[in-house]
Amino acid sequence: MAKSYIPLLIILGVTVLNAVGMAVASHILNPRRPTPQKAMPYESGMIPLGDTRHRFSIKFYMVAISFIVFDLETIFLVPWAVRVRELGWGPFVAVFFFVVVLAVGLVYEWKKGGLEWE
Amino acid sequence: MGEMQELSTFWFVTIGAVKVLAVFTVVMVVVAYMTLAERRVSAFIQDRLGPNRVGPFGLLQPIADGLKNIIKEETMPGTAAKFYFVLGPALAIMPAVVTMAVIPFAAPLPTPVGTVDMVVADVPIGILYILALSSLAVYGIVLSGWASNNKYAFLGGLRASAQMISYEVALGLSVIAVLLLVGNVTLTETVWQQQQLGMWFVFPLSLAFIFFLISALAETNRLPFDMPEAESELITGYHTEYSAMKFSMFFIAEYAHVVTASALLATLFFGGWDIPFWTGDDMFRHESGWIKGFDEAGAPIAATPSVLITLLTLGAFCAKTGFFLLLYIWIRWTLPRFRYDQVMHLGWKVMLPGALGYIMLVAGTMLVLEQLEVPFGMLYGGVLTGVSGITTLAFLFFVDRDRVISGAHRKRNVGRRRVPVAREAGGPAASN
């Protein structure tokens, strides 16, 4: 039923209005007395050393890649999961091998140290 | 037969808009009072008084806080990326509230113009919509952390993103276990199938519940998973540079996420608006009308929606959600924070393989039960409860072995195992 999506659009509109409203209201109401000190990034009261735009650990990139693999896997399982009782053993075996293949991938990443944080 | 009087499009949209405004207002008020409840409960746990000056029992404190935040001066680092700096909090606040739209909060309400579903939008994509929308929450946090151009904020944003996507996998997989039993992705049917099974899914899917609870804590960045804003390490993490109303928006977003997660926990595992030990409230929209369930011959049994049942079930839903809200606060003031490597370890090496194995176990057990032609009811649920219970105990035993979530004490390799130094040496820790 396409009709049932209408309230979703309404609540999306309300939340966008709310978020914009909060930002705009405080922008109008609040005082602005900028000083150079206020415009400095906060580093516990020290004068900031250098810029933030540095290289960062590749670990985060590894996590992002693993996430894509396994989140996709979750979505692939959904169509089977909602019909598991009707489908019976055949698809169960198929899904089992699918999961085993991914588990092997996980074990490989694990043994290669891709999941270690020191 | 419970006649089904469909709403005309005009009434559908009008009532839809009313429900949107009602749910939105309730979520916002609950969020405001969660900030107060958090402080009062923490005060209670720590044997203090907490804020009790503004109004009776401090009940007007959230209003005072809101007013103060909206008229405070805002600062923005001169080096910040201005557009994304403003976009961040707005993006953070939206997904949480929008997710509430598909959660049913009471039994259908009869009105003169037709029976109204007590859910903002009973869309056929239900749980998929929640998974999709809750993933968007990470953007607000990452963007604001990056745009602040502050090292602490940036680190907080990075940690938040890695943590949230890690636990999203486990969250999704624990939901799959629920889908196995429900056979649909809508939350209205999730509630109904729990009424049909005769027990809440927390029993037959106990391990999935534990995974979901842990993932929900990690997704909302609450203690013990609050590394993204660990005060003692990162000042306040990704919102270090935010002040006044934008700071408030992050807090509203966090509490709105907590409210949504509590409502989801109640719906997926604790029967939603179902009243326990009473079949009088069982109700579902079937092709033939409102039904309670099916008799032995497979014919639908009619159900009659009534205002009283709607009110009672609304009360049940609020009570369950309220319990989880309290649990969130309780956990925050009871448990210490994890180390970051422990968080990643738990997410990838324990919860992910655990949830995968558990799904296969539940599916296998269900297929065996189908083969034995056990009807979907108490016995069906009972067998699953037994299997899940044993698995859960095994899981808890395994996690508690001091190897998965290792403590801070020094360890050394003994053969293939890592053993705490003090324990091996027979020191004071040995007796523990």
Give a short summary of the structure:
In chain A, 64% of the residues lie in helices and 0% in strands. Chain A is built from four helices and no strands.
Number of helical stretches of at least 4 residues of chain A: 4
Backbone shape of chain A: flat
Distance between the termini of chain A: 51 Å
Low-confidence stretches of chain A: none
Arithmetic mean of pLDDT of chain A = 84
For the biggest sheet of chain B, the summary is: 3 strands, antiparallel
Helix content of chain B: 55-70%
CA radius of gyration of chain B = 24 Å
Report the mean per-residue pLDDT of chain B as an integer.
83
Strand order of the largest sheet of chain B: 3-4-5
Question: Strand-residue fraction of chain B?
Answer: 5-15%
Task: Name the largest protein-protein interface in this structure.
Answer: A-B, 71 and 85 residues
Instruction: Write down the Rg of chain A.
Output: 25 Å
Order of helices and strands of chain A: HHHH
Tally of helical segments of chain B: 14
Q: What structural class results from the helix and strand content of chain A? A: mainly alpha
Commentary on this structure:
- The complex is a heterodimer of chains A (118) and B (432).
- Chain A is mainly α.
- Chain A is built from four helices and no strands.
- In chain A, α2 runs antiparallel to α4.
- Chain A is flat and about 70 Å long.
- In chain B, the strands form three sheets. Chain B has a three-stranded antiparallel β-sheet with strand order 3-4-5, with helices on one face. A two-stranded antiparallel ribbon of chain B has the order 1-2. A two-stranded antiparallel sheet of chain B has the order 6-7.
- Helices cover 59% and strands 6% of the residues of chain B.
- Chain B has helices at residues 9-45, 61-70, 82-99, 126-135, 137-147, 151-182, 187-197, 206-219, 231-234, 244-269, 307-332, 340-371, 378-399, 421-424, and strands spanning 109-111, 114-116, 284-286, 289-294, 300-302, 411-414, 417-420.
- In chain B, β1 (109-111) and β2 form a beta hairpin.
- Chain B has one domain.
- Chain B starts with 8 loop residues before the first helix and ends in an 8-residue tail after the last helix.
